[in-house]
Amino acid sequence: xxxxxxxxxxxxxxxxxxxxxxxxxxxxxxxxxxxxxxxxxxxxxxxxxxxxxxxxxxxxxxxxxxxxxxxxxxxxxxxxxxxxxxxxxxxxxxxxxxxxxxxxxxxxxxxxxxxxxxxxxxxxxxxxxxxxxxxxxxx
Length: 139
Fold this sequence. Notes:
By secondary structure, the chain is an alpha/beta fold. The chain contains 5 helices and 5 strands. The chain has helices spanning 2-23, 33-39, 54-63, 65-70, 122-136, and strands at 42-47, 73-75, 83-89, 95-102, 107-115. Strand 4 (95-102) and strand 5 form a beta hairpin. Helix 3 packs across helix 5 (122-136). The longest helix is centred in the first third of the chain and has 22 residues, at 2-23. The protein is globular and about 75 Å long.
């Protein structure tokens, strides 16, 4: 009798867990990072550095020939983005970290570093690094 109750409890627990996972939309068929990179068109740019303004980086990305060929669209609405480009500056240095995220899963798709020297165009370097990494990822 005790084993029957324990078995029923385990079955009920398993059913609740599976139902929750299905209801939240998780599945084995989630897109891979390469799929997200290849199919994403709408990007959002986020910068936590006062030296990199989102608007200036947007302009530089749109100037890149490959970005135009891919038909990338930049949005200012983070919730409409299919990819998020994030720029952070390492404290007390001239190194910047460029990360690209999948906003649905908050997964890092790729990342890269850019070292800025005095009087160089940092936004252009970041845009070039973004396009280079997108191409390496199979875009």
